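Data deposition worksheet. Section B asks for the primary sequence of the deposited chain exactly as it was used as input, without tags or linkers unless they were present during the calculation. Section C holds the resulting structure in C-alpha cell form. Section D is free text for depositor observations; keep each observation to a single sentence. Incomplete worksheets are returned to the depositor.
Section A, Depositor: J.P.
Section B:
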Amino acid sequence: MNIPKLRQEAESGSVVAQSVLGICYLDGIDVEVDYKEAFRLLSAAADKGASRAVANLARMYAEGLGILKNLPEAISLYEKAAKAGEFFAQIDLARIYSRGTGVPADRETALRWYSTAAAQESKVDDCEELQEAKAYVAGTK
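Section C:
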C-alpha cells in the first residue's frame, strides 16, 4: 500500500483515504499500530458518512482499542454501520445479541442481524463469518 500517498489524500479530505489509512493504523497494515491516529482518521471519515469507518470505530469502542471500552457506544455505531449494509458490523451485532455481551441475550435480534448478513452472500467472499451467519439462521429453523 502506498502509505505516503494515502496520508496525503487523507489530509486533503479524501474520505476513502481516511478510512483506508485509519484501518491501516488500527490493524498495523504497512504501518505501526497507532490507535490515536486510527481514531482520528476513522472519526473524520465517519463524520462524513463512511460506514466502514463507523464499523471500525465501533470495534475500537467494543474492544477498548486506544480508547475506553464503551459497549453502548459500540452497539450504537455498529447499528449505524449495519443499517448502511456493512457486513462485518451485522456479524458483530449478531454476536453481541446472541451471546448477551453487555446486553441481555436476544435471539430474535441476533437472528435478524445474522439473516441480514447471510442475505449478502452474493456480495461478500465466502468466509467464516458468512458460514457462521448461515449456520445460525439454519439452526433456528
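Section D:
The chain has a mean pLDDT of 96.
The longest helix spans residues 15-27.
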